[in-house]
Specification:
The chain is mainly beta. Helices cover 9% and strands 41% of the residues. It is elongated.
């Protein structure tokens, strides 16, 4: 009679993240859209249908800082490479007092690539 290894006793388990925590530190190189060469910038963070908005960094000159965190629950399919559900979208906007807010910039990060690389992307 032989002893069974742990691999044979347990079905194959793969670690899959269930949440992602996002920290919005700053933006760089933004063009001013407000009066006096400044912007009142904020960031919208979106994952699937969930959204979070940072506070407004008022009168910034191209490099607003927020240092704000939010957390999103991941769906089981969020890390698949062929779907849009795993795209973390960060959009920076200028708050306009009159009329529509103005687009300043955007980045899309596919979480499947982040978790596949198994390293922190602190500069992204």
């Amino acid at each position: 009679m032989s002893l069974l290894g742990v691999e044979e006793l347990l079905p194959e388990h793969k670690w899959v993240p269930t949440n992602v925590q996002v920290t919005v530190m700053r933006a760089r190189g933004l063009r001013a859209k407000g009066k006096g060469g400044t912007s009142d910038a904020y960031t919208i963070i979106q994952l699937a249908r969930d959204k979070f908005s940072t506070s407004v960094a008022e009168k910034t000159t191209g490099c607003p800082e927020w240092k704000e965190e939010c957390s999103f629950e991941l769906s089981p399919s969020a890390l698949e490479f062929d779907g849009e559900g795993g795209n973390l979208i960060l959009t920076v906007m200028h708050r306009a007092l009159i009329g529509l807010d103005k687009f300043l910039g955007q980045i899309i990060i596919h979480l499947g690539h982040v978790f596949q690389d198994k390293r922190s992307h602190s500069s992204e």
